[in-house]
Amino acid sequence: GVILLFISGCDTIQDLNNSEPPSEMDAVPLRVTMIYPSDCVGSAAYCTAFHIGVKGAEEELGIILTEVNGIENDPVATEMLLRAAAQNSELVLTAGYQMGDVLARVAPEFPDVKFAIFDVVLDIPNVASVNYKSNEGSFLVGAIAGLKTESNKIGYIGGADVALLQEFEAGYVAGIHAVNPEAEVTVEYISKDATGFGQPEKAKELALAQYANGIDVIYVAAGGSGQGVLEAAQAQQKFIIWVDANGNHLAPGLVLTSMTKEIPVSVQRIIQETAEGNFMAGIRYFGLKDGSVSYAVDEHNQLLLSDDIIATVESLKAKIIAGEIVVPDTISLPRE
Q1: DSSP summary character for residue 19
Q2: Binning pLDDT at 50, 70 and 90, where does residue 5 land?
Q3: Buried b (16+ CB within 10 A) or exposed e, 84-116
Q4: Does residue 64 register a pLDDT over 80?
Q5: What 3-state DSSP class applies to 276?
Q6: Structural domain includes residue 273
Q7: How many domains would you assign to the chain?
Q8: Segment 99-108 mean pLDDT
Q9: Average pLDDT over residues 182-210
Q10: Where are the beta strands (DSSP E) in 202-321?
Q11: Residues in CB range of 57: below 8 A, 6 or more apart
Q12: In whole angstroms, what is the distance from residue 244 CA to residue 46 CA?
Protein backbone atom coordinates (compact mmCIF):
# COMPACT_ATOMS: atom_id res chain seq x y z
CA GLY A 1 0.00 0.00 0.00
CA VAL A 2 2.74 2.42 0.97
CA ILE A 3 4.63 1.79 -2.26
CA LEU A 4 1.51 2.43 -4.32
CA LEU A 5 0.89 5.67 -2.49
CA PHE A 6 4.47 6.68 -3.12
CA ILE A 7 4.23 5.85 -6.82
CA SER A 8 0.96 7.70 -7.30
CA GLY A 9 2.56 10.61 -5.47
CA CYS A 10 5.40 10.62 -8.01
CA ASP A 11 2.91 10.52 -10.86
CA THR A 12 1.28 13.65 -9.56
CA ILE A 13 4.58 15.49 -9.36
CA GLN A 14 5.47 14.23 -12.84
CA ASP A 15 2.13 15.50 -14.20
CA LEU A 16 2.76 18.93 -12.76
CA ASN A 17 6.21 19.04 -14.34
CA ASN A 18 4.88 18.05 -17.73
CA SER A 19 2.04 20.54 -17.80
CA GLU A 20 1.96 24.31 -17.69
CA PRO A 21 3.79 25.91 -14.79
CA PRO A 22 1.29 25.75 -11.95
CA SER A 23 -0.42 28.98 -11.00
CA GLU A 24 -0.62 29.85 -7.34
CA MET A 25 -4.11 28.34 -7.26
CA ASP A 26 -2.98 24.98 -8.64
CA ALA A 27 -0.04 24.74 -6.31
CA VAL A 28 -2.12 25.38 -3.22
CA PRO A 29 -5.52 23.66 -3.21
CA LEU A 30 -8.45 25.86 -2.23
CA ARG A 31 -9.43 25.42 1.42
CA VAL A 32 -13.21 25.13 1.61
CA THR A 33 -15.52 24.64 4.60
CA MET A 34 -19.16 23.63 4.27
CA ILE A 35 -21.30 24.45 7.32
CA TYR A 36 -24.62 22.63 7.20
CA PRO A 37 -27.78 24.34 8.46
CA SER A 38 -28.19 21.81 11.30
CA ASP A 39 -27.19 18.25 12.08
CA CYS A 40 -28.25 16.73 8.82
CA VAL A 41 -25.48 15.30 6.65
CA GLY A 42 -27.06 12.37 4.87
CA SER A 43 -30.50 12.75 6.48
CA ALA A 44 -32.51 15.64 5.04
CA ALA A 45 -32.65 15.78 1.25
CA TYR A 46 -31.58 19.42 1.36
CA CYS A 47 -28.31 18.78 3.15
CA THR A 48 -27.56 15.69 1.12
CA ALA A 49 -27.64 17.84 -2.01
CA PHE A 50 -24.93 20.14 -0.61
CA HIS A 51 -22.90 17.12 0.49
CA ILE A 52 -23.01 15.72 -3.06
CA GLY A 53 -21.92 19.12 -4.42
CA VAL A 54 -18.92 19.63 -2.13
CA LYS A 55 -17.77 16.01 -2.47
CA GLY A 56 -18.00 16.38 -6.26
CA ALA A 57 -15.84 19.51 -6.10
CA GLU A 58 -13.37 17.68 -3.86
CA GLU A 59 -13.04 14.89 -6.43
CA GLU A 60 -12.88 17.12 -9.48
CA LEU A 61 -10.96 20.12 -8.21
CA GLY A 62 -8.86 18.63 -5.42
CA ILE A 63 -10.00 21.17 -2.83
CA ILE A 64 -9.21 20.68 0.85
CA LEU A 65 -12.69 20.16 2.27
CA THR A 66 -13.98 20.43 5.82
CA GLU A 67 -17.63 19.65 6.57
CA VAL A 68 -19.23 20.89 9.79
CA ASN A 69 -22.74 20.55 11.16
CA GLY A 70 -24.39 23.76 12.28
CA ILE A 71 -25.90 23.76 15.74
CA GLU A 72 -29.66 23.90 15.66
CA ASN A 73 -31.32 26.82 17.41
CA ASP A 74 -28.03 28.03 18.92
CA PRO A 75 -26.88 31.16 17.07
CA VAL A 76 -23.99 31.78 19.50
CA ALA A 77 -22.43 28.36 18.95
CA THR A 78 -23.08 28.64 15.22
CA GLU A 79 -21.34 32.01 15.12
CA MET A 80 -18.28 30.45 16.79
CA LEU A 81 -18.27 27.70 14.14
CA LEU A 82 -18.44 30.27 11.38
CA ARG A 83 -15.56 32.30 12.85
CA ALA A 84 -13.41 29.18 13.17
CA ALA A 85 -14.18 28.27 9.56
CA ALA A 86 -13.30 31.78 8.38
CA GLN A 87 -9.92 31.55 10.11
CA ASN A 88 -9.02 28.31 8.34
CA SER A 89 -10.63 28.59 4.91
CA GLU A 90 -10.56 30.71 1.79
CA LEU A 91 -14.18 29.86 0.94
CA VAL A 92 -16.93 29.12 3.46
CA LEU A 93 -20.27 27.77 2.22
CA THR A 94 -23.48 27.62 4.20
CA ALA A 95 -27.21 27.48 3.62
CA GLY A 96 -30.65 28.13 5.02
CA TYR A 97 -32.12 31.27 6.43
CA GLN A 98 -31.17 30.42 10.06
CA MET A 99 -27.56 30.95 8.94
CA GLY A 100 -28.27 34.30 7.29
CA ASP A 101 -28.29 36.45 10.42
CA VAL A 102 -25.13 34.80 11.71
CA LEU A 103 -23.29 35.26 8.41
CA ALA A 104 -24.39 38.90 8.22
CA ARG A 105 -22.51 39.49 11.49
CA VAL A 106 -19.41 37.42 10.72
CA ALA A 107 -18.65 38.04 7.02
CA PRO A 108 -17.75 41.75 7.35
CA GLU A 109 -15.11 40.85 9.97
CA PHE A 110 -13.27 38.63 7.46
CA PRO A 111 -13.07 40.76 4.30
CA ASP A 112 -10.40 38.51 2.73
CA VAL A 113 -12.45 35.34 3.11
CA LYS A 114 -15.08 34.48 0.51
CA PHE A 115 -18.47 33.27 1.69
CA ALA A 116 -21.38 31.72 -0.18
CA ILE A 117 -24.84 31.27 1.29
CA PHE A 118 -27.66 29.44 -0.44
CA ASP A 119 -31.36 30.32 -0.15
CA VAL A 120 -30.69 33.60 1.65
CA VAL A 121 -30.68 37.07 0.11
CA LEU A 122 -27.65 38.84 1.59
CA ASP A 123 -25.90 41.82 0.03
CA ILE A 124 -22.36 41.89 1.50
CA PRO A 125 -19.21 42.57 -0.59
CA ASN A 126 -17.51 39.20 0.15
CA VAL A 127 -20.66 37.04 0.05
CA ALA A 128 -22.16 35.21 -2.92
CA SER A 129 -25.87 34.94 -2.14
CA VAL A 130 -27.20 32.07 -4.26
CA ASN A 131 -30.96 31.79 -4.55
CA TYR A 132 -33.20 29.46 -6.49
CA LYS A 133 -36.41 30.49 -8.15
CA SER A 134 -38.23 27.92 -6.03
CA ASN A 135 -41.48 29.61 -7.02
CA GLU A 136 -40.91 28.53 -10.65
CA GLY A 137 -40.33 24.88 -9.80
CA SER A 138 -43.24 25.00 -7.34
CA PHE A 139 -45.51 26.40 -10.07
CA LEU A 140 -44.83 23.32 -12.22
CA VAL A 141 -45.48 20.80 -9.43
CA GLY A 142 -48.58 22.81 -8.53
CA ALA A 143 -49.83 22.35 -12.08
CA ILE A 144 -49.22 18.60 -11.76
CA ALA A 145 -51.21 18.55 -8.50
CA GLY A 146 -54.01 20.59 -10.10
CA LEU A 147 -54.24 18.19 -13.04
CA LYS A 148 -53.99 15.01 -10.93
CA THR A 149 -56.34 15.75 -8.03
CA GLU A 150 -59.65 13.88 -8.03
CA SER A 151 -61.18 15.53 -4.96
CA ASN A 152 -60.19 19.05 -6.11
CA LYS A 153 -58.69 19.55 -2.64
CA ILE A 154 -54.95 20.10 -2.51
CA GLY A 155 -52.58 20.77 0.40
CA TYR A 156 -49.28 22.49 1.16
CA ILE A 157 -47.24 22.03 4.35
CA GLY A 158 -44.30 24.38 4.91
CA GLY A 159 -41.65 24.22 7.62
CA ALA A 160 -41.68 27.86 8.73
CA ASP A 161 -44.05 30.67 7.84
CA VAL A 162 -41.30 32.92 6.46
CA ALA A 163 -40.66 34.63 3.11
CA LEU A 164 -38.47 31.81 1.73
CA LEU A 165 -41.19 29.18 2.20
CA GLN A 166 -43.97 31.55 1.15
CA GLU A 167 -42.17 31.71 -2.19
CA PHE A 168 -42.77 27.95 -2.64
CA GLU A 169 -46.38 28.44 -1.57
CA ALA A 170 -46.97 31.36 -3.96
CA GLY A 171 -45.67 29.44 -6.98
CA TYR A 172 -47.48 26.24 -6.03
CA VAL A 173 -50.87 27.89 -5.56
CA ALA A 174 -50.45 29.85 -8.83
CA GLY A 175 -49.55 26.64 -10.69
CA ILE A 176 -52.58 24.81 -9.32
CA HIS A 177 -54.94 27.63 -10.28
CA ALA A 178 -53.37 28.03 -13.75
CA VAL A 179 -54.72 24.59 -14.70
CA ASN A 180 -57.55 24.14 -12.20
CA PRO A 181 -59.10 27.44 -11.06
CA GLU A 182 -61.75 25.63 -8.98
CA ALA A 183 -59.30 23.68 -6.79
CA GLU A 184 -59.38 24.41 -3.07
CA VAL A 185 -55.90 24.79 -1.56
CA THR A 186 -55.14 24.36 2.15
CA VAL A 187 -51.89 25.95 3.34
CA GLU A 188 -50.40 25.11 6.73
CA TYR A 189 -47.04 25.80 8.37
CA ILE A 190 -45.52 23.63 11.07
CA SER A 191 -44.05 26.61 12.93
CA LYS A 192 -43.39 30.33 12.70
CA ASP A 193 -39.62 29.70 12.80
CA ALA A 194 -36.84 27.23 11.98
CA THR A 195 -37.98 24.72 14.62
CA GLY A 196 -40.57 23.60 12.04
CA PHE A 197 -37.85 21.88 9.99
CA GLY A 198 -37.24 19.31 12.73
CA GLN A 199 -40.76 18.31 13.78
CA PRO A 200 -41.75 15.25 11.71
CA GLU A 201 -44.39 14.20 14.27
CA LYS A 202 -46.24 17.50 14.02
CA ALA A 203 -45.92 17.42 10.22
CA LYS A 204 -47.44 13.94 10.18
CA GLU A 205 -50.41 15.11 12.29
CA LEU A 206 -51.07 18.05 9.96
CA ALA A 207 -50.83 15.79 6.90
CA LEU A 208 -53.12 13.09 8.35
CA ALA A 209 -55.71 15.79 9.09
CA GLN A 210 -55.44 17.20 5.56
CA TYR A 211 -55.83 13.74 4.01
CA ALA A 212 -58.81 13.04 6.31
CA ASN A 213 -60.43 16.24 5.01
CA GLY A 214 -60.39 14.91 1.46
CA ILE A 215 -57.11 16.42 0.27
CA ASP A 216 -55.46 13.95 -2.10
CA VAL A 217 -52.12 15.67 -2.89
CA ILE A 218 -49.81 17.43 -0.40
CA TYR A 219 -46.66 19.37 -1.34
CA VAL A 220 -44.21 19.52 1.56
CA ALA A 221 -41.31 21.97 1.90
CA ALA A 222 -40.13 21.39 5.46
CA GLY A 223 -36.64 19.87 5.64
CA GLY A 224 -36.44 16.94 8.06
CA SER A 225 -40.17 17.28 8.88
CA GLY A 226 -40.98 16.03 5.37
CA GLN A 227 -40.49 12.48 6.66
CA GLY A 228 -43.67 12.85 8.74
CA VAL A 229 -45.73 13.86 5.71
CA LEU A 230 -44.27 10.90 3.80
CA GLU A 231 -45.40 8.53 6.57
CA ALA A 232 -48.90 10.05 6.46
CA ALA A 233 -49.04 9.60 2.67
CA GLN A 234 -48.03 5.95 3.05
CA ALA A 235 -50.58 5.38 5.82
CA GLN A 236 -53.41 6.95 3.79
CA GLN A 237 -52.20 5.87 0.33
CA LYS A 238 -52.49 9.45 -0.92
CA PHE A 239 -50.11 11.54 -3.02
CA ILE A 240 -47.21 13.62 -1.75
CA ILE A 241 -44.92 15.97 -3.69
CA TRP A 242 -41.32 15.98 -2.44
CA VAL A 243 -38.93 18.94 -2.47
CA ASP A 244 -35.28 20.01 -3.06
CA ALA A 245 -33.98 16.63 -4.22
CA ASN A 246 -35.64 13.86 -6.20
CA GLY A 247 -37.57 11.82 -3.64
CA ASN A 248 -39.68 9.84 -6.12
CA HIS A 249 -38.05 6.59 -4.94
CA LEU A 250 -39.05 7.18 -1.29
CA ALA A 251 -42.55 5.81 -1.91
CA PRO A 252 -42.96 4.79 -5.55
CA GLY A 253 -46.55 5.24 -6.69
CA LEU A 254 -47.28 7.80 -3.95
CA VAL A 255 -44.65 10.47 -4.60
CA LEU A 256 -46.37 12.22 -7.49
CA THR A 257 -43.22 14.18 -8.39
CA SER A 258 -40.45 16.18 -6.72
CA MET A 259 -39.61 19.86 -7.09
CA THR A 260 -35.88 19.59 -7.57
CA LYS A 261 -33.22 22.21 -7.09
CA GLU A 262 -29.94 21.37 -8.78
CA ILE A 263 -28.01 22.31 -5.64
CA PRO A 264 -24.95 20.11 -6.35
CA VAL A 265 -24.42 21.82 -9.71
CA SER A 266 -24.55 25.33 -8.27
CA VAL A 267 -22.36 24.38 -5.29
CA GLN A 268 -19.70 23.05 -7.65
CA ARG A 269 -20.09 26.11 -9.86
CA ILE A 270 -19.36 28.49 -6.95
CA ILE A 271 -16.35 26.44 -5.79
CA GLN A 272 -14.97 26.21 -9.32
CA GLU A 273 -15.38 29.95 -9.94
CA THR A 274 -13.55 30.63 -6.68
CA ALA A 275 -10.75 28.17 -7.50
CA GLU A 276 -10.30 29.85 -10.89
CA GLY A 277 -10.14 33.28 -9.26
CA ASN A 278 -13.58 34.28 -10.57
CA PHE A 279 -15.57 34.43 -7.32
CA MET A 280 -18.69 36.54 -7.87
CA ALA A 281 -20.14 38.23 -4.80
CA GLY A 282 -23.67 39.60 -4.82
CA ILE A 283 -27.19 38.25 -5.10
CA ARG A 284 -27.63 35.59 -7.79
CA TYR A 285 -30.78 33.78 -8.90
CA PHE A 286 -30.86 30.39 -10.61
CA GLY A 287 -34.18 29.23 -12.12
CA LEU A 288 -35.90 27.22 -14.85
CA LYS A 289 -33.99 29.04 -17.56
CA ASP A 290 -30.59 27.71 -16.48
CA GLY A 291 -31.88 24.29 -15.41
CA SER A 292 -31.49 24.99 -11.69
CA VAL A 293 -35.06 24.05 -10.71
CA SER A 294 -37.29 21.42 -12.25
CA TYR A 295 -39.74 18.61 -11.56
CA ALA A 296 -38.63 14.99 -11.48
CA VAL A 297 -39.93 12.27 -13.78
CA ASP A 298 -38.35 8.81 -13.56
CA GLU A 299 -39.25 5.11 -13.43
CA HIS A 300 -40.80 5.61 -9.97
CA ASN A 301 -43.51 8.08 -11.01
CA GLN A 302 -43.81 8.03 -14.80
CA LEU A 303 -46.93 5.84 -14.68
CA LEU A 304 -48.63 8.51 -12.52
CA LEU A 305 -48.10 11.28 -15.06
CA SER A 306 -50.02 10.92 -18.32
CA ASP A 307 -48.64 12.27 -21.60
CA ASP A 308 -51.28 15.02 -21.37
CA ILE A 309 -50.07 16.12 -17.94
CA ILE A 310 -46.44 16.21 -19.10
CA ALA A 311 -47.38 18.12 -22.27
CA THR A 312 -49.30 20.74 -20.27
CA VAL A 313 -46.48 21.17 -17.75
CA GLU A 314 -43.82 21.42 -20.47
CA SER A 315 -45.89 24.08 -22.22
CA LEU A 316 -46.16 26.07 -18.96
CA LYS A 317 -42.42 25.65 -18.42
CA ALA A 318 -41.67 27.05 -21.89
CA LYS A 319 -43.93 30.04 -21.22
CA ILE A 320 -42.17 30.79 -17.92
CA ILE A 321 -38.75 30.60 -19.59
CA ALA A 322 -40.00 32.87 -22.40
CA GLY A 323 -41.32 35.37 -19.85
CA GLU A 324 -44.94 34.91 -20.96
CA ILE A 325 -45.90 33.69 -17.51
CA VAL A 326 -44.47 35.57 -14.54
CA VAL A 327 -44.67 33.36 -11.46
CA PRO A 328 -45.46 35.21 -8.22
CA ASP A 329 -42.86 34.90 -5.47
CA THR A 330 -44.83 36.45 -2.62
CA ILE A 331 -48.25 35.77 -1.17
CA SER A 332 -50.87 38.32 -0.25
CA LEU A 333 -51.46 38.33 3.48
CA PRO A 334 -53.69 37.67 5.25
CA ARG A 335 -54.35 34.38 3.45
CA GLU A 336 -57.96 33.90 2.39
Answers
A1: S
A2: very low
A3: ebbeebbbbbbbbbbbbebbeebbeebeebbbb
A4: yes
A5: coil
A6: yes
A7: 2
A8: 93
A9: 96
A10: 217-221, 239-244, 255-261, 282-286, 293-295
A11: 32, 63, 65, 267, 268, 271, 272
A12: 6
Judge if 206 and 84 occupy the same domain: no
Cis, bond preceding 334 (omega within 30 deg of 0): yes
Closest CA to 313 of 148, 140, 179: 140
Q: Are residues 251 and 273 in the same domain?
A: no
Mean pLDDT of the chain: 90
Strand, helix or coil at 196?
helix
Q: How many CB atoms lie within 10 A of CB 53?
A: 23
State which H helix or E strand residue 187 sits in. Answer: strand 184-191
Q: Cα Rg for the chain, rounded, in angstroms?
A: 22
From CA 32, how far away is CA 85, in angstroms rounded?
9
Same domain flag for 153 and 85 = no
Q: Is residue 294 part of a domain?
A: no
Cβ atoms 167, 285 nearer than 8 A:
no
Same domain, 196 and 161: yes
Say which amino acid occupies 149: T
Note whether 198 and 106 are same-domain residues. no
Assign residue 268 the CATH number of its domain: 3.40.50.2300
Residue 211's contacts (CB-CB under 8 Å, 6 or more residues apart) are 218, 232, 233, 236, 238
The beta-carbon contacts of 231-236 under 8 Å, at least 24 apart in sequence, are 231/200, 231/204, 232/203, 232/204, 232/207, 232/208, 233/207, 235/208, 236/208, 236/211, 236/212
Domain housing 171: 134-261+301-322
Nearest to 124 by CA among 285, 286, 281: 281
Q: Work out the angle at residue 191's Cα, subtended by the Cα atoms of residues 94 and 72, and round it to the nearest 5 degrees.
A: 35
Let me know: does 168 contact 221? Beta carbons within 8 Å. Answer: yes
Which residue type, as a one-letter code, is found at position 25? M
